[in-house]
Amino acid sequence: DAGVIQSPRHEVTEMGQEVTLRCKPISGHDYLFWYRQTMMRGLELLIYFNNNVPIDDSGMPEDRFSAKMPNASFSTLKIQPSEPRDSAVYFCASSRRASSYNEQFFGPGTRLTVL
Amino acid sequence: KNEVEQSPQNLTAQEGEFITINCSYSVGISALHWLQQHPGGGIVSLFMLSSGKKKHGRLIATINIQEKHSSLHITASHPRDSAVYICAVSPGNQFYFGTGTSLTVIP
């Protein structure tokens, strides 16, 4: 199994530009999570999906952030317009179930720098 | 308000030493996770436990639900154990993360 795949691995953009991060979960996993990691705040859950449906987006910082999961094998996290404070590492993870009893498998992350 | 507190924040040890990292939490939980993040940034799940103790190689994780406390122990530490160790708890489908403990093991 290839594991969770994220692209791009690194993204450098200018303030105001649109940024799209991509994730392919492990085949057969019904749940997909988007996290953000910064030095100041550590890891934060942004949103998670169950069977392609957004379940909890209370962690999404503001309307500039949006996430979609058009099918079981692909999800995107979009930031429009981007701001320097969005600079962080964004992780995608998937699991068979969202229950805390189930292990999550993390992708390698996308390091975003907004200048 | 931090639902999860880890200590210490930073830890330096000599190779071979026994290491303990602590995690205290303030919410009722179903399970607790220990994650490892290497310098390259990748995150790996080490343990998921809801009671008692689990062991995997040189790693041991314990949890006391009544005291809302968990410990991660590393026996015979090795430089390759150098990483950030993150505690995460979940009262349901929401996850709360500690800020991590940065461990450096010196040869």
How would you characterize this protein structure?
The complex is a heterodimer of chains A (115) and B (107). With 115 residues, chain A is mainly β. The mean pLDDT of chain A is 92. Helix content of chain A is 0%, strand content 54%. Chain A has strands at 5-7, 10-13, 19-24, 31-38, 42-50, 53-56, 65-71, 74-79, 88-95, 105-106, 110-114. Chain A contains no helices and eleven strands. In chain A, strands 2, 4, 5, 6, 9, 10 and 11 form a seven-stranded mixed sheet that branches. In chain A, strands 1-3-8-7 form a four-stranded antiparallel sheet, with no helix packed on it. By secondary structure, chain B is an all-beta fold. Helices cover 0% and strands 59% of the residues of chain B. Chain B has no helices and eleven strands. Chain B has strands at residues 4-7, 10-14, 19-25, 31-37, 43-49, 52-56, 59-64, 69-74, 83-90, 96-97, 101-106. In chain B, strands 2, 4, 5, 9, 10 and 11 form a six-stranded mixed sheet that branches. In chain B, strands 1-3-8-7-6 form a five-stranded antiparallel sheet, with no helix packed on it. In chain B, strand 4 (31-37) and strand 5 form a beta hairpin. Chain B is globular. The N and C termini of chain B lie far apart (38 Å). The mean pLDDT of chain B is 92. The interface between A and B is medium-sized, with 24 and 24 residues.
Overall residue-averaged pLDDT value of chain A: 92
Number of helices of chain A: 0
**Greatest interface and its participating residue counts:** A-B, 24 and 24 residues
Shape of chain B: globular
Q: In sequence order, what are the helices and strands of chain B, one letter per element?
A: EEEEEEEEEEE
Major sheet attributes of chain B? 6 strands, mixed
**Radius of gyration of chain A, whole Å:** 13 Å
Q: Give start-end ranges of low-pLDDT stretches of chain B.
A: none
Distance between the termini of chain B: 38 Å
What is the share of helical residues of chain A? under 10%
| Rg of chain B (CA only) | 13 Å
Which stretches of chain A of 5+ consecutive residues score pLDDT under 50? none
Identify the overall geometry of chain A: globular
Sheet bearing the most strands of chain A, described?
Answer: 7 strands, mixed
What's the average pLDDT of chain B? 92
Number of helices of chain B: 0
Order of helices and strands of chain A: EEEEEEEEEEE
Tally the beta strands of chain B: 11
The quaternary organization reads as heterodimer
Structural class by sheet pairing and helices of chain B:
mainly beta
